[in-house]
Amino acid sequence: MNENAGNVFEQEGELFSPTWSFTWIETGATVAPGTIIAPITLPTSAETVEHASLHLASDDLTLARDCFGEALKFGLPDNANSIAKGLIHAAVISYARPFASGVRGFRLTSQFFAAVWTEGDHQTHDYLCTLRDKHVAHSVNDFERATTVGVVVTDQSFHLLGTNPSGVGVTKLSMVGLPMSKLNLCSAHLDGMIAVIEARIAALRVTIHQQTHSLLAVGKRIEMAPLATFADRSKIAERRR
């Protein structure tokens, strides 16, 4: 059984929902009326760090899948469609996020999905990560370009007729960067990735429970884990601890 509990808070005009989810590993006994189901603090280990990080990675990839799916409804990616372009770029950023460095303590790699990825999956992954690095997050490749040009009037053989009128303009090209052929692959690609993460989370739960079971002494007062740690917006540039 999986239990979810969360309260919605509003702080400075933003809604967010802290959650607590859990799965019973050792079962059979009855939870008596009047008792408390409580979260407890666990010792930090490679497994607990990976377990927590994978939940955030799953959120990133779920957002990417949802955004790609919504963008697909608009048809052929079109730079003139700001909503569709925004959905695709948001999806690309979310997709690459769990593979990038940060403070989560565990990050995804291609090897993590080696058992299920086809050559096509590897190609899709490489394209999306490169698209993020070289176009969506940073202006590097030829998917956008702008050049300042002069404007004059010429005859039919392009000989200048004079300087009045004359002016200045710009030539510009901007692309979404993700063609329809690749957009069509993204949802299935992400479905497979999310399934692998969910399976790994399930295995980690069992391992962590085995590692910490010996720490559970009946009658001992437990150290309750916080259900939510709220962010300080004034520390937006600081690394979380």
Topology at a glance:
Layout: E1 2-6, E2 9-11, E3 14-16, E4 19-23, H1 46-72, H2 82-96, H3 119-136, E5 144-154, E6 160-174, H4 180-212
Antiparallel strand pairs: 1-4, 2-3, 5-6
Helix pairs in contact: 1-2, 1-4, 2-3
Can you walk me through this structure?
The chain is α+β, with helices and mostly antiparallel strands and 241 residues long. The protein has one domain (2-235). Helices cover 39% and strands 17% of the residues. The protein contains four helices and six strands. The chain has helices at 46-72, 82-96, 119-136, 180-212, and strands spanning 2-6, 9-11, 14-16, 19-23, 144-154, 160-174. Strands 1-4 form a two-stranded antiparallel ribbon. It has a two-stranded antiparallel sheet with strand order 2-3. Strands 5-6 form a two-stranded antiparallel ribbon. It is elongated, with a radius of gyration of 26 Å. The two termini are 31 Å apart. Residues 1-7 have low confidence and may be disordered.
Count of discrete structural domains: 1
C-alpha termini separation:
31 Å
Approximate helicity band: 25-40%
SSE-based structural type: alpha+beta
Dominant shape: elongated
**What percentage of amino acids are in beta strands?**
15-25%
Query: What is the residue-mean pLDDT, rounded to a whole number?
Result: 92
Q: Give the biggest sheet.
A: 2 strands, antiparallel
Number of helices: 4
Runs with pLDDT <50, length 5+? 1-7
Specify Rg, calculated over alpha carbons. 26 Å
**SSE sequence, one letter per element:** EEEEHHHEEH
The order of strands across the largest sheet is 1-4
How many strands?
A: 6
